[in-house]
Amino acid sequence: MENKEKDLLKKDLNVEELKKKYGKVYEVKAEIEPEGEFETVELIYYFVKPKAPSFNRYIKTVSQNSMKATKTFVIDNIVEEQLADIEDKFEKYPALCIGIGEKLLNMLGLPKSTNFKLL
Known about the structure:
Blueprint: H1 3-10, H2 15-22, E1 26-32, E2 34-37, E3 41-47, H3 52-62, H4 66-77, H5 83-92, H6 96-107
Antiparallel strand pairs: 1-3
Helix pairs in contact: 3-4, 4-6
């Protein structure tokens, strides 16, 4: 894990201050391996729970461009203090928004798995 990158993400962020400013705040950790198993980067971001307008915008646009819709959905819900950093990381790691977006959708009830069978 690259500790420098992890430290930069947490720098100047006080979780208690974020809670005072935003109310409930959720921590999302993502571990990515940009060079395979030789390098692991841990990213930590803080989000508010997605609200209906953000989710509705996502639903309306996901069929047209899923990457753009997911990226916008994530950006809508990240704490303002980390916005510039996550936009920079999306340039460096484009698929990062998919993993984070999925976690945000889980908060709204997206199941990890759904099964059906013919009766």
